[in-house]
Amino acid sequence: MATGLLGRMHRLRHASGWIFGTMLFSSCLSLIASFVLSKEAITLAADPNANLSCNINAVISCGTVGSAWQSHLLGFPNAFLGLIAEPVVITVAAASLAGVRFPRGFMYAAQIVYTLGLIFAYWLFYQSMFHIGALCPWCLLVTLSTTLVFSTLTHINIRDGNLFLPARLSSALRTGIGFNLDLLIVVIWLLMIVLAIVLKYGDRLFG
Amino acid sequence: MSKHDRLRAKAREVRLAQERAERRRKRIRIAIGAGSLVIVGLLVAIFAVVYTSASHDRTTASGVLVTPANLAASGAIPVGQTSAPVTVEIYLDYMCPACGKFEQANATELDRLLAAGTIKLELHPMNFLDSRSKGTNYSTRTANAVATTADQAADKVWVLSKALYANQPEEGTSGLTDQQIADLATTAGVPQATVDAFKNRTFDTWVTNSNDAAFKAGVQGTPTIKINGTHFEGDVYNAGPLTQAIEQAAGGAS
């Protein structure tokens, strides 16, 4: 399978350059989205009825999402967390692209912290979808890019054996990644989210 | 253990490891096959949902403005005798808890003043709280029901409106179902043919326009009360102040 175009694509996907490149790109998207959301949180704080750029209709509305309690869980807009955390991810990705190899413990800690971030992002997505009853495009971008950063970080950590896992589990995971099972899982996961969104909001999304 | 035995054991170990690896590869190939099928299935499902909801949109009346009959000159839904000297305008959203509190405090007084011919009401139903009903658009559904009643059975508007408040769901819940709203209207005495017409959602667009017009006219939230066109700034959550202001206006008019 390591011949021709497919083989080249396969090697590219598992090369550090590609993985960290994807991580850098995704974390930049996250940072941009966090910046826009922070800016809107401030606008909204000054004027609760402000007409935000992304209040498109009843379903797609960051005003609605932004005013919900879930959007400032810790007493300040969640987006501020993105402003704090994403530059760190960007730094790690950029340094790795430049050839820096971080110690195992460092990458392990990064995996743990980022997993917490992922859980938080999906909790917010769940709240927005089922309790607030509106979606905001910038929050969806955060959900997407967080997923991508998480998958690239996990990819690299399994490939390089950074996770302090038992030898057999570690080799099984590495084989799975060698067969691109991680890619398969991420694609299925994202498609499931798209399906959930169109199922719940389809008729009003385009209305 | 002889050297030979050790070599044999080692060879067996290697063979076992190879078999294990082969089994694992096989499982992974099966997983990839299954996963690919899942992806295809998901793509088909997504396209099917998007396609049906897009075509669904074209067949419903959404986007077409139909204005209810029997509206007041202001474009609001009138209640009471047109000859009444005082006009009380109420901007409301059936999902809004403050509107519910207003109603609870003042319904009896409003009923009395309506019966006495002192006031007529003009209801401006709004739907800006649609986002607060878990995507069921409770505000629009109820406002459409009231608009449909205004269109076909104008004398039942006020009882329906009161029934909706008496059964008001908590803000942020999915609200009453269409069936519950229909049952409630039937109990309130709205004719069956009118109740059956709720589901056509004929006046959705009118409700949205009415909502936007209210905001454009400077309404900042609900309930907003105007007496003969003047914004009532007093306490709307206790009976008394509103009645006083109305009676003052009535005294001034006569």
UniProtKB/TrEMBL annotation, chain A:
Instruction: Give TM regions.
Output: 18-37, 79-99, 106-126, 132-156, 177-199
Q: How does it sit in the membrane?
A: Multi-pass membrane protein
Location in or out of the cell: Membrane
Q: Which organism is it from?
A: Paractinoplanes durhamensis
Pfam families in the record: VKOR (PF07884)
User: Which protein are we looking at?
Assistant: Membrane protein
InterPro entries the UniProt entry points to: VKOR, VKOR_Actinobacteria, VKOR_sf
Similarity annotation: Belongs to the VKOR family.
Query: In terms of one coarse class, where is the protein primarily found?
Result: membrane
The Vitamin K epoxide reductase domain sits at: 16-157
Q: Which UniProt keywords apply?
A: Disulfide bond, Membrane, Oxidoreductase, Quinone, Redox-active center, Transmembrane, Transmembrane helix
Automatic annotation (TrEMBL), chain B:
Write out the entry's keywords from A to Z. Answer: Disulfide bond, Membrane, Oxidoreductase, Redox-active center, Signal, Transmembrane, Transmembrane helix
- Asked if the Swiss-Prot or TrEMBL record annotates the protein with the keyword Repeat, the reply is no
Transmembrane parts of this sequence: 30-51
Domain called Thioredoxin-like fold: residue spans: 77-235
Q: Does the keyword Magnesium apply?
A: no
Q: Do you know which Pfam families this protein is assigned to?
A: Thioredoxin_4
Q: Which InterPro entries match?
A: Thioredoxin-like_fold, Thioredoxin-like_sf
What PANTHER family does the record tag this protein with?
DISULFIDE BOND FORMATION PROTEIN D, GLUTATHIONE S-TRANSFERASE KAPPA
Identify its protein family. Belongs to the thioredoxin family. DsbA subfamily.
Put simply, this protein is called: Membrane protein
Look up and give the organism this protein is from: Paractinoplanes durhamensis
